[in-house]
Amino acid sequence: MKYLTIDTTTKVTALALAEDGRLVSEGFLHTSKTHSERIIPMLDQLLSAADWSLQDLEMIGVVRGPGSFTGIRIGIATAQGLAQVLNLPLVAVVSLDALAWAGKGRTEDIVPILDARKNEWYTARYHWRSGAERADCLTPPQAMATEQWLNYLRGLNCSLCFVGDAAAKAKGRIEEILGERAVILPDYISLPRGAYAAQAVWERWKEIGEGELVEPYYIRFSEAEVNWAKKEEARRNGKDE
Question: Its domain of life (predicted)?
């Protein structure tokens, strides 16, 4: 089965073409341009390099979050549009699950951390068992204050491998709290890659064997939604008075 994966949950635009779980080509852009400016030109280049056409695709995969609210919406909208036009099944995976593939083969617990702003990370914890086709999720995805999460990890009796767009930025603090138990992978391994999404999507496809309804996975409300809720609460309280 030939398929395309799209990951725009961070500042990185990461696309991949794969066949039956085997990576054929991938694109990675971490520039000042927006996802909407990068995604279609990158897709055209990947298809041309692989000597594929859109009509060769048999499935579309997308990373649905958590991450950038705008990026999530762009990725899902693009994937849904392609799936609808080409009449293809659509499959979605979680960004943190995809990032766990950056640590495949390592013995440490894998800890993806994505910048959620407000001194918080989107994070989870995984472990790869020998010979496993996917990582075990030991701590489910969540948004947590950075210091709270690091203090929780300090209480665990294991080594930890950090990946994600917040890993390099927080390297000093992570090592200060966790010492030699912490491994921070470099950006070229740690940032979202099309290859990771391609593997995660293939495992998801093997699990469900059909397309699915895809909705954004935000974990928490956006700033606009929080402000709207506050205004609504103030309006209702005003009426009650």
Answer: Bacteria
User: Which amino acid, residue 6?
Assistant: I
Cβ pair 90, 60 in contact under 8 A: yes
pLDDT, block means (10 residues), the chain with 241 residues: 98 97 96 93 97 98 97 97 98 98 97 95 97 95 97 97 96 96 96 97 97 94 48 59 55
| C-beta separation of 61 from 91 below 8 A | yes
Tokens representing 225 are 């939604």
pTM of the predicted structure, to 2 decimals: 0.90
Structure tokens that stand for 130 in this block: 């020998």
Architecture of domain 2-94+192-223 in this structure: 2-Layer Sandwich (3.30)
Whether 32 contacts 43, CB under 8 Å? no
Domain over 96-190 is classified CATH 3.30.420.40: yes
